[in-house]
Amino acid sequence: MNKNLNSFEVLNICCIGAGYVGGPTMAVIADKCRNIKVTVVDKNSKRINLWNDINLDNIPVFEPGLKEIVARVRNKNLFFTQNLKDSIKNADIIFISVNTPIKQSGLGAGFASDLKWVEKCARQIGELALGHTIVVEKSTLPVRTARVIKQILNSASTDNNSNKRTFSILSNPEFLAEGTAINDLLYPDRVLIGGEDDYAIQTLSKIYQNWVPQKKILTTNLWSSELSKLVSNAFLAQRVSSINSISALCEATGANVKEVSNAVGLDSRIGREFLNSGPGFGGSCFKKDILNLVYLCRFFNLNEVADFWYQIVLINDWQQKRIYELIVKKLFGNVDGKIITILGFSFKSNTNDTRESPAIKIANYLLIEGAQLKIHDPKVSHQQIAMDLKDFQEDKNGMSLNSWQFSKDVYEALKNSDAVILTTEWEEYKGLDWRSISKSMRKPGWVFDTRKILNGIEIKNNGLNYWCLGEGSDLEMI
Ligand code: UDX
Ligand code: UDX
C-alpha cells in the first residue's frame, strides 16, 4: 500500500481495539470517508467474529443507529480482523482504542490506569509499522502517556533491514457517551486533537472535516488534550454526584429533586445537563478517570485537590449504599428469602454495557443480605449478568437464598416479587401495566424507582407502595 507522506491524503486507517469506542468510531469514519480503508483489529476472536456476524443484531456493541452504518460499510471500506500484522503495516494512521482499566495491584493500585495493553500496542506498532505512521491515542489515558508511547516508538525507529520508520503521536480523546454514541460522533460539540506536529494534526483534522465543521475542531498541545478528557469526565461526574447528594437532602426535607434540578438548571450559567439524580454514575469512564485525576494530583503533591475530586467517587458509592439500606429498611429490615426484581442491569439505557453499573452494586448488597433476585434487562445478555454476579449462585429452577435468576420477560420477572427496583431508565419500563403486575406480586409490595420515570400515582392506585428517589414527603419529616 502506498503511503502519502507529502500530502494530507490518508488511504488506510487501522484501529486496535474493537470495543465500545473503537467499533462505533471507526464505523462512522468509514461511513463518512468512503475513500479510506478502515480496519479494526482485536485480539479477541469472539468479538471479531461477532462484528462480522451476518446477522447484524449480533454485533457485540448495541448502539442506536450503529447496525445500519455497519450494514452500509462492512466489507466495503470497513473491516474487522485479527490480523494485526498487516493492518499495522498498511496503516497511515493507527488509533489505539484498547482498554485501560484501573490497576488492581502494584504501584498506584486502585487509582492509576493499567497501561499494559497500551504499551503492548506501542511495541507492536514499533515493530511492524512501515515508513511514517501517525499514532493516535483514542483510549482515555493518564496525562503524559504520549511520552511513554513516543519513547517506545522512537526506540524502534529502524527495522531489521535498516529501513527507517518515523512516527507522529496525537491525542484525540473520545467524548462519545454510550447510548448516544452515533449521534455524538456525527454531531460532536468539539473534536479535540493534541499534538506537537502540525502535519499530523492537519492530517487527522482533514479526516474529521469530512463531516465536522472546522470551527469545532480544536487543537492543543498533547498534555492539554490528555488532561481535558479527564477533566471533562470529572466535571460531568461532579454534577451527577452534586445532584445525588441533594436527592438525599430532598428526601429528608420534603423537597423534590426533580423540581430542584429543574429550577437550578434553568439558570443559564448552570445549565440543565447532567443534573438528573439517580442511583449513581456507572460506565467505564467516570470513576476510572476521576481516580486517575486523584492519582495525578497526589503525584504532584496536590493533596487538597485530590481530596476534592475523590469526594465525587465517595458520594457515588454512598448513593448506591444508601438506596440499598433504604430498601432493606422499607422491607421491615429483612430481605432474607424475599424475592426482589431488578429492572435494568446496564449502567444507563440504550446500551448493553454493564461496566460499573449501579445495578451490580445494589444487587451485590442485596444478595449478601440474603435476597433472591430476579433480573431483567432488554439488552444485557444472561451471560453478561452471570459474569457480573459471578460470586453468587444462579438458580435456574426454583429460588433459593442468596441466588439470582434471569428473566427475558419483564412480567415473568415481576411475578411473586415482594419488591421491584428500577435501576435503568429503559423506555419500555415507562409503559408497564401496574394493574396486572400488582395482581402477580406478593403483598405488601414495594416499587423503588431510582430513576424517577414511573407513574407513582398509578402504582399506588394499584395497591403497591411506591418510593421515588429524591422525593421527600412531609410525613417523613414528622
Ligand atoms: C474505551 C477506551 O479504550 C478506554 O480507555 C476508555 O476509558 C473506555 O473506553 P472501550 O472501547 O469501552 O474502551 O473498551 P472495550 O469495550 O473493553 O474494548 C477494548 C478492546 O480492546 C477489547 O475488545 C479488547 O479485546 C481489545 N484489546 C485489548 C486488543 O485488541 N488488544 C490488546 O492488547 C488489548
Ligand atoms: C461518559 C461521557 O459523557 C463521555 O463524554 C465520555 O467520552 C465517556 O464517559 P458514558 O459513561 O458513556 O459517557 O455515559 P454518560 O451519559 O456520561 O453517563 C454516565 C453515567 O452517569 C450513567 O450511569 C448515567 O446514568 C449517569 N448520569 C448521567 C446520571 O445519573 N445523571 C445525569 O444527569 C447524567
Structural overview:
The protein has 478 residues and is of the alpha/beta class. The protein has two domains: 5-220, NAD(P)-binding Rossmann-like Domain (Rossmann fold, 3-Layer(aba) Sandwich), CATH 3.40.50.720; 254-478, NAD(P)-binding Rossmann-like Domain (Rossmann fold, 3-Layer(aba) Sandwich). 41% of the residues lie in helices and 14% in strands. It has 18 helices and 15 strands. The protein has helices at residues 22-32, 45-51, 66-73, 84-90, 116-128, 145-154, 181-186, 198-208, 222-253, 257-265, 286-299, 303-330, 358-368, 382-388, 410-414, 434-440, 456-461, 474-477, and strands spanning 12-16, 37-41, 78-81, 93-96, 132-137, 166-171, 191-195, 217-220, 339-343, 372-376, 393-394, 403-406, 419-422, 446-449, 465-468. The strands form two sheets. An eight-stranded mixed beta sheet has the order 3-2-1-4-5-6-7-8, sandwiched between helices. α8 links the parallel β7 (191-195) and β8. α5 (116-128) runs parallel beside α6 (145-154), α11 (286-299) runs antiparallel to α12 (303-330) and α12 (303-330) crosses α13 (358-368). The radius of gyration is 24 Å and the shape is globular. The termini are far apart. The mean pLDDT is 93. The structure holds uridine-5'-diphosphate-xylopyranose (2 copies). Residues 174-178, 233, 236, 240, 274-276, 278, 281-283, 285-286, 347-348 line the site of one uridine-5'-diphosphate-xylopyranose.
